[in-house]
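Table S2 (continued). Query chain:
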Amino acid sequence: MLGCTILDTIMKNNGVTMDFGSHVRGLREQRRAVNRRYSVRQTAQRIGVEPAYLSKIERGDVPPPSEETVRRLAADLGEDADLLLALAGKVSTDLREIIMQRPILFAELIRGLSDAPDDELAALVRKVRNGEW
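Corresponding output:
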């Protein structure tokens, strides 16, 4: 998944739900295969948690960590923070603040788009991102 956007990742997974811990472990192990500095111990040290805690996260023995820790983990592993936050069952603070400004409109928009096919939703996101709406 190196170099993928969140849209690419979602499209590849085609709606299949991933487990946070398993996904993190898979990412870390992919990187460790080419760079030994991605051991549990070294990764934990870089993101500021105990190795035993990171191991428990990867095994699913504890709930996903805080938003800040998820963001540090995403940065260290080269993963999209929004994807890891979603897998952790969290919404980033900036998105929560945007939604809170117009909660009814955003709720209606999200619910209305929930059944849209992935390819059409991805096209809509690209248009919005490029200011073509």
